[in-house]
Specification:
By secondary structure, this protein is mainly alpha-helical. It contains 9 helices and no strands. The chain has 2 domains: 39 residues, Arc Repressor Mutant, subunit A; 138 residues, Tetracycline Repressor, domain 2. Helix 1 packs across helix 2, helix 6 packs across helix 7 and helix 7 crosses helix 8. The N and C termini lie far apart (57 Å).
Amino acid sequence: MDDKILRATRELIDEVGYPALTVDQVATRAGVGKAAIYRRYASKAEMAFDATLHEQPLPPFTGTGSLHGDLLALVRAFHVRMATPAARQLTPALISELAGNPELDARFQDTFLAAEQACFAEIIEQAVARGELAGAVDPATAHVLLLGSLASALYILNLPVDDAMVTDLAAAATAGITALADLRHRNPGGTAEPR
């Protein structure tokens, strides 16, 4: 049943767009009752997000041998996911719902964002092991530096993000993460205050 709901949601988003999508349409297309959908999803935005973005597994982390290479590979993979017309329609709606729905926010944090931050933790751990970073950096901070910038460019500033910008974002995140690691290493236990 879950597959039918998600498939129907994706098809309808492609056909009518997210703003015109209704739970009734999805229920009819999937051949299920609305109650079955609402047992699984708190809202249309959550259902659509799950169907178009969350259901896609994160790209497997293979490692490129450098912090910059790893961040560039990651941001390129996310750019493909985040720049689709469906993602550009859905993500702002989902962000709005997260602000007013603590239960949905907790699910989002515990599933989607936790998986993304685990990927950043692995990248940072490998960079520390290779000696590229003076020490560990909070994966959530690395996440904000790279994917937060990409999300802002796509969903808030509505910029035409191309590979040149994606490459610049990876370079900036690499520099920022490296600087934070250096600051934390010089001032362990303290805040990362520049000198």
